[in-house]
């Protein structure tokens, strides 16, 4: 039997990188708050907070793209099935969802601001934030898929690299646009969009590296197999519902805070 230190070391190698990368997420929120909080008016901070809540709903709600991809990829890897088909299938769903979000962005905005009332000034600048940030949807959802795929391939180092790079770029661009260029709320949103696409580019490069180490070819008919698409879409329905419930609770308190701005 393996010794306890050896087991602990193996667990840390798998979980440690994700723990470290997740630590950068609250750091990013702290930087957003610090940068926007130094602006003249408090409604800038309220707008960023309100806009952030909306995108928590939009993006976190589709977190099953990462979790579902992880499980199915791990199963395929163990069974020796095609990992390319799973990656392509998951990306196809992510692109479909992103296209839906882009097409319906106006109704999403109207419904969101009807539910989350933050005052006229807050809503005005939150709309600016939403109109820019929504264009990060293809990159964000595609990155979710790639992160899940990396984890399913038993690679936790690449997600660490991607999340660190994305968050660091976001922080740097935040300071540059808001402080250096005086872009206020639009600067925060633009920084997030650029950082997400840079993170996606890095994720693609790392995925290509893994695929070169796993010989195979892309088969379109396997990617669009209807039963597999349905399985992937519904595999994390319960987690999707759970996430929405949590977000509703968090959003209520954020909306109440925004009203005080």
List the helices and strands in order: HHHHHHHHHHHHH
Average per-residue pLDDT, rounded, comes to 80
Taking the alpha carbons of the first and last residues, their distance comes to 60 Å
The 3D shape can be described as: globular
Helix vs. strand class: mainly alpha
Number of strands: 0
Strand-residue proportion: under 5%
Chain oligomer state: single chain
Helix fraction, binned, reads over 70%
Task: Tell me the Rg in angstroms.
Answer: 20 Å
Low-confidence stretches: none
Number of helices: 13
Short descriptors:
single chain, 261 residues, mainly alpha, 0% strand
Tell me the layout of helices and strands.
Elements (H helix, E strand, L loop, with lengths): L3 H19 L1 H14 L4 H19 L3 H16 L3 H21 L1 H11 L4 H14 L3 H16 L4 H24 L3 H30 L6 H4 L2 H9 L2 H22 L3
């Amino acid at each position: 039997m393996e010794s306890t230190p050896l087991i602990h070391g193996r667990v840390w190698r798998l979980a440690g990188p994700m723990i470290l990368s997740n630590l950068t997420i609250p750091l990013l929120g702290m930087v957003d708050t610090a940068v926007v909080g130094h602006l003249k008016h408090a409604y800038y901070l309220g707008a960023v907070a309100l806009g952030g809540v909306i995108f928590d709903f939009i993006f976190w709600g589709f977190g099953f793209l990462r979790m579902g991809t992880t499980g199915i990829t791990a199963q395929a890897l163990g069974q020796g099935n095609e990992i390319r088909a799973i990656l392509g299938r998951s990306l196809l769903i992510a692109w479909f969802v992103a296209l839906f979000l882009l097409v319906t962005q106006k109704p999403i905005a109207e419904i969101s601001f009807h539910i989350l009332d933050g005052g006229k000034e807050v809503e005005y600048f939150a709309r600016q934030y939403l109109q820019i940030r929504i264009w990060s949807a293809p990159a964000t959802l595609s990155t979710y898929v790639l992160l899940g795929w990396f984890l399913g391939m038993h690679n936790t180092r690449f997600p660490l690299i991607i999340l660190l790079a994305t968050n660091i770029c976001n922080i740097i661009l935040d300071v540059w646009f808001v402080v250096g260029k005086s872009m206020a709320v639009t600067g925060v949103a633009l920084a997030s969009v650029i950082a997400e696409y840079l993170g996606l580019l890095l994720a693609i490069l790392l995925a290509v590296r893994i695929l070169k180490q796993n010989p195979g070819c892309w088969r379109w008919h396997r990617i669009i197999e209807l039963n597999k698409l349905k399985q992937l879409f519904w595999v994390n329905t319960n987690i999707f519902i759970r996430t929405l419930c949590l977000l509703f609770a968090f959003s209520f308190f954020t909306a109440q805070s925004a009203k005080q701005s």
